[in-house]
């Protein structure tokens, strides 16, 4: 059975790059443009991993992760933050919200896939 990954990023081109890498590795992918869009697309379906940007319109990544973790269905779903943010403060906020890994853009697809395969349940 293939695993499903939700990608949340306001950059369509970045979502495409991540999506192609994941699909190439055999994952199913759901894409969302920001946190609010992502919450709407979750809707109780099984998601094995979430990859989220931090800086997005409507709902930023850290707020999104906090919201996701309130939902019992997704409380244990691992989250990777994929972002240009590299400050310790942002990383700490991300970890407190529930993010398990932090990948800084620009990233190597292999590096991201390694993080994904480690965290996918």
UniProtKB/TrEMBL annotation:
GO terms for biological process: phosphorelay signal transduction system. Residues 4-120 form the Response regulatory domain. It comes from the Bacteria. Coiled coil: none annotated. Keywords: Phosphoprotein. The modification 4-aspartylphosphate is found at residue 53. InterPro entries: Bact_response_regulator (IPR050595), CheY-like_superfamily (IPR011006), Sig_transdc_resp-reg_receiver (IPR001789). This is Response regulator. It comes from Azoarcus taiwanensis.
């Amino acid at each position: 059975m293939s695993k499903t990954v939700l990608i949340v990023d306001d950059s369509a081109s970045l979502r495409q790059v991540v999506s192609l890498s994941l699909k190439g590795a055999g994952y199913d992918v759901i894409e969302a443009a920001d946190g609010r869009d992502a919450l709407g697309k979750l809707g109780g379906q099984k998601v094995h991993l979430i990859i989220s940007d931090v800086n997005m319109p409507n709902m930023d990544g850290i707020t999104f992760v906090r919201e996701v973790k309130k939902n019992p269905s997704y409380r244990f779903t691992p989250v990777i933050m994929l972002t240009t943010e590299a400050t310790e403060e942002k990383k700490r906020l991300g970890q407190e919200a529930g993010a398990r890994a932090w990948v800084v853009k620009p990233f190597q697809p292999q590096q991201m896939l390694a993080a994904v395969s480690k965290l996918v349940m």
